[in-house]
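Task: encode each sequence below as structure tokens.

Item 1
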Amino acid sequence: MNWLMLIVAGLLEVCWALGMKYSNGFTKPFASVATIVLIVISLFLLNQALRTLPVGLAYGVWTGIGTVGTVIMGIILFGESASPARLFCIALIVAGIIGLRILPQG
């Protein structure tokens, strides 16, 4: 259950990062409120996951999901660069997340 909360928290991080873009510097009320709500929920779920998961692992996975998801959505929604070098760097982040998960914690 803690892993599920952590994954949802990471996906919500993607949503609130995009929300910040859509809020236009917190000048658009609906997008601003939605972004703040998503931040709170994401941090709450991260906090719940940290009850049993190691902090380095959980935080690394949370930020990794947020980073990779936000870059992918930036490519899809905003036409940001999808250069081979950029995609390679994203693959390295994904490899790091997988490594944190599968390597021994001790």
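Item 2
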Amino acid sequence: MTQVSITELIAGVRSGYVVSFPTDTVPALAALPEKADLIFTFKQRSQDKPLILMGAKASDLWSFVTESNEKRQWQQIAELYWPGALTLVLPASTHVPKQVNPTDLSTIGLRVPDCAIAQSILAQTGPLATTSANLSGQPPLQTMAEIAAQFPDVMTLSQSDVAENSHITVPSTVAKWTGKSWEILRQGAVTLEV
């Protein structure tokens, strides 16, 4: 597919297409959560490597987390680091579609990007299932042109819409709640201090 405007990209993702747009880290492949299986297919990604849900703001994401006495602690970490390059892996509620994490429905990764374009898209689509834009095992692609070439069936945001967007080329830090503390699953752009 050709590169498209933000309006066309939002319409496309709402219609069930996989799309790509910049974030504050590496560009994302994204789809409606119930269409997340398409991302696994495009990326040739193993189903035991879950996707994350990205939202425009934290309040868009909390319904995907199990109610718990620890929820306030998770929210405090989110208030410190979101929007930003931190993915929190938390106990999943029944609202998480199986397509996002096909082999383990017990957890869900959540993130709010510090990127105006991404937040604008997510505010209009609701939370999306996302991952880095690349074939599984390959380095993340950095530009919309590279993504369009690698994934011709993905709607990518036109370069004119992202020209002023700057992003880090390091993925987000991934921190999983163990029940007592945070375990760093991937050290990325943010150093979590708890």
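Check on item 2: Residues 56 and 119 are 5 Å apart (CA to CA). The mean pLDDT is 92.
End of task.
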